[in-house]
Design brief:
This protein is an alpha+beta fold and about 500 residues long. The chain has three domains: about 160 residues, no CATH class; about 80 residues; about 150 residues, Heat Shock Protein 90, CATH 3.30.565.10. The strands form three sheets. Strands 7, 9, 10, 11, 12 and 13 form a six-stranded mixed β-sheet that branches. A hairpin with a 2-residue loop joins strand 1 and strand 2. Helix 2 packs antiparallel against helix 3, helix 8 packs across helix 9 and helix 9 runs antiparallel to helix 10.
């Protein structure tokens, strides 16, 4: 008997969640996983912490006022006793002073002389001291804590300056701290409730504000990302920017661009895959056709006609290249080019063959080459032929368009430095259209003419980069376009070269 496995949890979009995701979702039951809930909790906690810091100063201020009030009442009692002319208060006056000020004993220091008005009882707990004359901030903050933590029946001795009598005079009173402690506890309770109310209210306001202006837009962006990941081909999964000018708006714009780029890349990959599949299907039949053509060329080699004999080598080279291209195009459909084998190659011969295959003579386009017969570059001959064929063919199409009365000119030049060979292909056509410049070297996206596939420049650049060089558009405009192929390394010269360190142009004479 086999034990049934538990069914995996399902995502909101129907995707199975792994075990780690299930554990994460279970943990969210104990801790708020959403940004909104966490925002509310943290806001309330932070406001509570701030209010508790304010609570300490509030309690210190409350106790200082309460004790200052007792000092002021005792001072008024002393003033009343002195007003009636009694230096020694009577028993009734002492009783009234104790009841009105809420004190046990009282002494008054004036002009350095201490006068005792209310004697402390014979038996009394040792009081703790609170000096209102000092300016110690730490002691001021900790005095309420000492009052709240004091034992039952404790007394407090308070020193405070007089208000009515000028000079360095002060009163010293001893009072029970029970009334102060009770009022402090009541004040703390009221303040805590007020703090909690403010914290919850402030947290709720901040929560709703940030939820509307931050959390919900981020949830919208996250939802769009999840839907796009689940189905990149779904048009509704693409986010529409809201037009905001803050960071959220920028995130929406960048996500929209990223989704468009990924969709374009997926479409390009799909077309490349379809191309590879199509080439794989026709590759076998095309090879059979090329084999038959090669057999026919061998029979033509037996012909005594001189014109046939002169054209036969070109036919054989074309058939050989076609046979190799059937395999290499299939490799390109799989996003891989064969590794080049660079050798010293006569550039003039490759230019002549590429111009002939590109149909320059048949279309009346004039080719001007500044490359001399002995100039060489280090390159794979077949790859170099393909690069030049694509570029010269594109140039021929640019200068022989329907809007031109007469065909134009294609110029090819070579410049060699100490490390690189730079091949320049220039035309006097109308230039590359502005709409195609951004995707000029992208497969199926860089064509600027109807019916073009956009593969020519993409293949040429990939071949140049496989050599360690590059293909770039140096300049374009109404006067024409200039492409440059950079190939690293130099071929051994057939004759003496110019002194090293100075760039050498193919137009300079060599000996």
């Amino acid at each position: 008997m086999t034990q049934d496995k538990p069914a995996p949890m399902r995502h909101r979009f129907g995707l199975a969640l792994p075990g780690a995701a299930q554990g994460e979702q279970a943990r969210r039951l104990l801790w708020p996983g959403g940004l909104s809930a966490r925002l509310l909790v943290f806001t309330v906690v932070f406001v509570l912490v701030a209010e508790l810091l304010i609570l300490a100063t509030s309690l210190a201020t409350f106790e200082e006022r309460w004790l200052s009030d007792r000092i002021y009442r005792a001072e008024l009692g002393v003033q009343v006793i002195k007003a009636v002319g009694d230096n020694v208060p009577t028993t009734s006056q002492k009783k009234n002073l104790q009841d009105s000020a809420g004190i046990i004993s009282l002494s008054f220091q004036r002009d350095g002389i201490k006068e005792l008005y209310l004697s402390p009882p014979a038996v009394m707990n040792t009081p703790y001291v609170v000096d209102l004359r000092r300016s110690d901030f730490i002691a001021w903050l900790t005095d309420p804590i000492r009052t709240l933590t004091s034992k039952s029946g404790s007394n407090v001795r308070v020193f405070g300056h007089t208000r009515k009598i000028a000079g360095e005079n002060y009163l010293e009173i001893v009072a029970p701290d029970a009334p102060l402690k009770n009022e402090l506890i009541s004040y703390v309770q009221r303040l805590l409730w007020l703090t909690l109310l403010i914290s919850v209210g402030t947290g709720a306001l901040i929560y709703f504000f940030l939820n509307a202006f931050l959390v919900r837009p981020m949830q919208r962006i996250t939802l769009a990302m999840e839907r796009f990941r689940a189905d990149p081909e779904d048009p509704s999964a693409h986010i529409e920017p809201s037009g905001r000018r803050d960071e959220v708006g920028r995130a929406e714009i960048e996500l929209n661009r990223m989704q468009a780029d990924v969709t374009a890349a997926l479409n390009s990959r799909s077309r490349l895959a379809a191309l590879g599949e199509a080439v794989a299907k026709i590759n076998h039949d095309l090879r059979n056709m090329l084999t038959s053509a090669q057999l026919a060329s061998e029979r033509l080699a037996l012909s005594p006609d001189p014109s046939v004999a002169s054209a036969l080598p070109r036919l054989e080279r074309a058939l050989d290249r076609a046979a190799r291209l059937t395999t290499e195009v299939l490799a390109y459909g799989k996003s891989a080019e064969p590794t080049p084998a660079p050798v010293p190659t006569r550039l003039a011969e490759v230019i002549a063959a590429a111009a002939e295959d590109a149909g320059l003579e048949r279309n009346g386009v004039k080719l001007i080459s500044n490359v001399r017969p002995r100039d060489k570059v280090r390159a794979d001959p077949d790859h170099l032929h393909r690069m030049l064929l694509n570029l010269i063919k594109n140039a021929r199409q640019a200068v022989s368009g329907p809007d031109r009365r007469t065909p134009g000119t294609v110029r090819v030049a070579l410049e060699q430095t100490d490390e690189d060979s730079i091949i320049t292909i220039a035309d006097d056509g109308p230039g590359v259209p502005q709409r195609t410049l951004e995707n000029l070297f992208q497969p199926f996206a860089g064509s600027g003419r109807p019916g073009g596939t956009g593969l020519g420049l993409a293949i040429a650049r990939e071949l140049a980069q496989a050599h360690g060089g590059d293909l770039v558009l140096k300049r374009t405009g109404p006067a024409g376009s200039i492409f440059e192929i950079t190939l690293p390394g130099l071929a051994e010269p057939e004759a003496a070269s110019v002194p090293p360190g100075r760039p050498r142009s193919s137009s300079e004479p060599r000996t």
